[in-house]
Design goal:
The chain is of the alpha/beta class. About 30% of the residues lie in helices and about 20% in strands. It has 10 helices and 10 strands. α4 packs across α9. The chain is globular, with a radius of gyration of 19 Å. It starts with 6 loop residues before the first helix and ends with a helix.
Length: about 300
């Protein structure tokens, strides 16, 4: 911390690896590689047994901007750095983190998890509603200030020179059961309708969990699917693999400063979020493996040919 705080406030700030009152603004720093055991992260320590069996680099990244002191936990596979990269915005979603570790160990690449002390929000700010580059853009989602340093600090990992080509923008989330429109407690569901949302149920595959309304792939773009043949082909392939899909057409009127909307608005590349119900670790891992198969991203044990999606 860069200023003197009362002991109670300081303890609270350290408990969540930062403090919203820190007024250092506009800078991002990241450490050199460390052993994952050095991470102050319950999620990482829960997965240490698996991480110790692989060449994993842990780095702690900090962003000071707009009165917030953000901390990101970054894990990277040192022998296969050009694999897929995942972002986990919410610190309360344990199944998503465990699925991310599976992805890291199985496919290489890396992951970034936002630290919010085990909570979904960080001092009232949803980490997945903090992506904007200008004041005009942040106003679209009702945010009082833009967060360009935060945004670029996260997006830079997808474009890291160690990851060949222009890979997919990948995210992992967990959600409640059902949605608040049908008596549930989640905010996303295959059965929840909304403006500019279209839904495609996956084909039956024998795994009933994949047909659950809470387990789906979320995609986004600025065009309707009817005008985007590439997106429609991808959705068809995902459905055939047993994965349900929600697609959001992002417009200035519904832009919400989420990672998905930002990637779509700036046409950065293909975006896929694997959304699964809280606690559905095994189902989320199966969804992840099926998504990787559709994208042509092979496990590290099967790298006889280059991954066409990552190297194109």
């Amino acid at each position: 911390m860069r200023r003197i705080l009362g002991s109670a406030v300081l303890a609270g700030c350290l408990a969540v690896a930062g403090c919203a009152g820190d007024r250092l603004a506009g800078r991002s720093t990241i450490t050199a590689c460390m052993d994952p055991r050095e991470a102050h992260s319950a999620d990482i320590h829960r997965n240490l047994a698996a991480l110790r069996r692989a060449p994993i680099c842990y780095r702690r990244q900090e962003v000071h901007e707009g009165g917030y002191h953000w901390v990101f936990h970054v894990l990277e596979h040192t022998k296969a750095p050009n694999g897929p990269f995942w972002v986990l915005p919410h610190d309360s979603e344990n199944a998503a983190f465990d699925a991310g570790v599976h992805a890291l160990l199985t496919y290489g690449g890396g992951l970034l998890a936002v630290d919010a002390g085990g909570h979904r929000a960080f001092f009232g700010q949803d980490p997945n509603r903090n992506f904007s580059s200008s004041r005009a853009e942040s106003r679209l989602c009702g945010s009082p200030r833009p967060a360009p340093v935060y945004t670029q600090a996260i997006l830079a990992h997808y474009r890291d020179g160690k990851r060949k080509g222009r890979g997919p923008y990948l995210a992992l989330h967990n959600n409640g059961d059902g949605h608040n429109g049908n008596g549930g407690d989640g905010n996303i569901s295959l059965y929840r309708n909304g403006p500019n949302l279209t839904h495609w149920p996956g084909a039956a595959t024998g795994n009933r969990a994949l047909q659950d309304e809470d387990n789906l792939i979320f995609m986004a773009g600025t065009r309707p699917v009817s005008a985007d043949p590439a997106a429609r082909r991808r959705i068809t392939a995902l459905n055939r693999a047993g994965l349900s899909v929600i697609y959001k057409q992002v417009t200035p009127g519904n832009f919400d400063c989420s990672l998905s909307d930002y990637v779509a608005r700036h046409q950065l590349g293909e975006y896929y979020n694997i959304e699964a119900q809280h606690g559905a670790r095994d189902t989320q891992i199966e969804m992840l493996d099926r998504l990787m198969a559709v994208l042509g991203i092979r496990p590290l044990r099967d790298r006889s040919n280059a991954n066409p999606f990552l190297d194109r």
